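User: Please fill in residues for this 188-position structure.
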C-alpha cells in the first residue's frame, strides 16, 4: 500500500516537474512582407527576440516587453531602431528606406510591423476564468470527497461495493493534479 502510494506520488512529481509556464521550442509565425513569404521566429515565449527569414535573408530582432522599442539587425549588420510612444512611431533621422531597398533589403518599418503582427498573433488567448475555477473546484472536490468522485466515475457500474483505500487515495492524488491544473489555467 505504502509502496504504491509513494510510486504514484513520485510519478505525479515527475509529471508536474515537466510542466512549466514557458512553451518549449521556438514560436514561428508565417506572414508576407513586401510581397514575399516570411517566417518570424521568436526565441522564447516572452516574444522579446528572434529572427525573420524572408527572401533567403535572415534578419534578427529584439523587442522591449511592452513593444515600445524594436531593434532589427540587417544581414549586413545595420541596426534599424523603431520606437512607439503615444501611438507615434519614430525612427532614426539618418534612416533611408530607399538605401536599404537599393541594397536588396526590406524596409525596416515593414519588418517591425511584421514582428508586431506576429507577436500579437502568438499571444496566448488564455482560458476563461469560469472554466479554470470550475476545474479548480472539481479538483478540490475530488481531493476532499474522493468517495463521491468514485461514485461518479465507477460506483454506478459496481453495485453493492465500496472503493478500497488505495482507490480513494488515487482519487485524492488525481484531485490534487486536477486542482493544480485548474490553478495553472487560472494564472495563465
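Assistant: Residues filled in for all 188 positions:
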Amino acid at each position: 500500500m505504502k509502496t504504491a502510494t509513494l510510486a504514484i506520488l513520485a510519478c505525479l512529481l515527475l509529471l508536474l516537474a515537466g510542466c512549466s509556464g514557458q512553451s518549449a521550442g521556438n514560436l514561428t509565425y508565417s506572414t508576407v512582407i513586401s510581397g514575399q513569404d516570411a517566417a518570424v521566429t521568436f526565441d522564447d515565449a516572452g516574444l522579446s527576440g528572434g529572427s525573420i527569414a524572408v527572401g533567403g535573408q535572415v534578419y534578427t530582432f529584439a523587442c522591449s516587453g511592452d513593444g515600445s522599442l524594436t531593434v532589427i539587425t540587417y544581414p549586413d549588420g545595420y541596426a534599424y531602431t523603431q520606437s512607439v510612444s503615444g501611438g507615434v512611431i519614430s525612427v532614426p533621422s539618418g534612416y533611408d528606406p530607399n538605401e536599404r531597398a537599393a541594397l536588396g533589403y526590406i524596409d525596416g518599418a515593414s519588418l517591425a510591423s511584421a514582428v508586431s503582427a506576429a507577436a500579437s498573433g502568438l499571444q496566448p488567448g488564455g482560458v476563461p476564468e469560469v472554466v479554470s475555477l470550475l476545474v479548480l473546484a472539481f479538483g478540490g472536490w475530488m481531493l476532499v470527497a474522493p468517495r463521491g468522485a468514485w461514485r461518479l466515475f465507477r460506483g454506478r457500474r459496481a453495485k453493492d461495493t465500496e472503493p478500497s483505500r488505495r482507490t480513494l487515495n488515487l482519487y485524492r492524488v488525481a484531485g490534487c493534479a486536477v486542482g493544480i491544473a485548474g490553478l495553472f489555467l487560472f494564472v495563465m
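For context: The chain has two domains: 27-122, 126-187.
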